[in-house]
Amino acid sequence: MSRGKRPKWMIEIAIERMNILFERAEMEFERHPERSNRYVVLAKKLSTKYNTRIPDKWARRYCKRCNKFLYPGHNATVRLVNEEVNILCGECGHVMKIPYHKEKKNKRRARYESIKKRNDE
Ligand SMILES: [Zn+2]
C-alpha cells in the first residue's frame, strides 16, 4: 500500500499517533531531548505516509529545517513581529515566520471560495 487516498479511519489513527508522539516529545524534552527529536521524525513519517498534515497544535513545535522538537524557553525563541509569529530555532538558527492571523484568514478564504463556487454554478 503506497498510493492513493487513505480511508478516513486510517487518517484518524495517524493523527492520534502524531498527537501522542508530540505529547511524549514535550514530556521527555527536558531529560531526553534526543528522544523528542526522534518522535518528531516518526510523526513526520506518519504525516508523509498517510498524506496527512501534522496537527496545527504541533505544527509550530518543530523546526522545519533541522526537524528538532522546539521547546520555547529552552531551544526556541518565540517573538511577535508585526503581524507574524517568529520562531527562532536555537538548534540551527532557522527562523519560521507564521502569520499571526492565519486562522482568521483561512476562514475568510473558505467563505470566499464557497461564494465563488455558488456563482460559478
Ligand atoms: Zn532548526
Report on the architecture of this protein:
It is flat and about 55 Å long. It has 121 residues and is of the alpha+beta class. The chain has a three-stranded antiparallel beta sheet, with no helix packed on it. It contains four helices and three strands; from the N terminus they run αααβββα. The chain has one domain (8-120): Immunoglobulin FC, subunit C (Single alpha-helices involved in coiled-coils or other helix-helix interfaces, Up-down Bundle). 50% of the residues lie in helices and 14% in strands. The longest helix is centred in the N-terminal third of the chain and has 21 residues, at 8-28. The model has no long low-confidence stretch (mean pLDDT 88). Helix 1 packs antiparallel against helix 2. A hairpin with a 2-residue loop joins strand 1 and strand 2 (84-89). Bound molecules: zinc ion (ZN).
Key traits:
14% strand; 3-stranded antiparallel sheet; 50% helix; 121 residues; Single alpha-helices involved in coiled-coils or other helix-helix interfaces; binds zinc ion; alpha+beta
